[in-house]
Amino acid sequence: MVTWPRKTERLTLRPARPEDIGPLLAIRALPAVTRWLIKTDVDPVQYRDRWLRAINDPYDHSAVVELDGRVIGDCGLGVIDGMGQPGGPSERSEGQIGYIFHPGVAGRGYATEAATSMVALAFGELGLRRVTAGCFADNLASVRVLEKIGMRREQHGVRDSWHAELGWIDGYTYGILAEEWAAR
Ligand SMILES: CC(C)(COP(=O)(O)OP(=O)(O)OC[C@H]1O[C@@H](n2cnc3c(N)ncnc32)[C@H](O)[C@@H]1OP(=O)(O)O)[C@@H](O)C(=O)NCCC(=O)NCCS
């Protein structure tokens, strides 16, 4: 079990409450945010259900991010299978992180702070062996967040990612192992 809330220097990360869904959806729907997401259309009912289901899902550690009691974004950690043959230790051995922050608070290090907490959760309480994240190569803010937290670019997919406005563009996958995180 994960202990919530998780406090960072400036932020509080916690599971969603029903009243968070509106503010979260409003942030997610901002064009500057949607622009960099894979899923551009969101069904509000499914979105709400997913957040509320996550509260009791041991493999979905999605968290609302609060600054001084105000929801400014969210940060997710999904527990997924690593690559490997069935029945081995690769099953549910990896964490996959993601984040969304309100553009009004951009560039203050909040995503980096929240993502750091999620990676620490993955390697700490959850005991996972590897954490990954993916992004469009053109998403420079996200690239920077992943590099600032010490993740390694492990895959550069040349024009492997479809973007509604930009067409076929490059994608990156980042990764870090538990022992690398510990040795940072
Ligand atoms: C990606 C995102 C979460 C970053 O949030 P944030 O709180 O601004 O992130 P941080 O402040 O921790 O770090 C952002 C870094 O990117 C840099 N950056 C931002 N825009 C940039 C740009 N266009 N070019 C180069 N660097 C850029 C910032 O300067 C900062 O780096 P620095 O600390 O070295 O100055 C936010 O922009 C967002 O929600 N984007 C839309 C959703 C999204 O892309 N989610 C991730 C999908 S993979």
Automatic annotation (TrEMBL):
Domain N-acetyltransferase: 11-179
Gene3D superfamilies associated with the record: 3.40.630.30
UniProtKB keywords: Transferase
TM stretches of this protein: none
Alphabetized Pfam families for the sequence: Acetyltransf_3
SUPFAM superfamilies, alphabetized: Acyl-CoA N-acyltransferases (Nat) (SSF55729)
Protein's name according to its UniProt entry: GCN5 family acetyltransferase
Organism the protein comes from: Luteipulveratus mongoliensis
Highest taxon of the lineage: Bacteria
A GO molecular-function annotation: acyltransferase activity, transferring groups other than amino-acyl groups
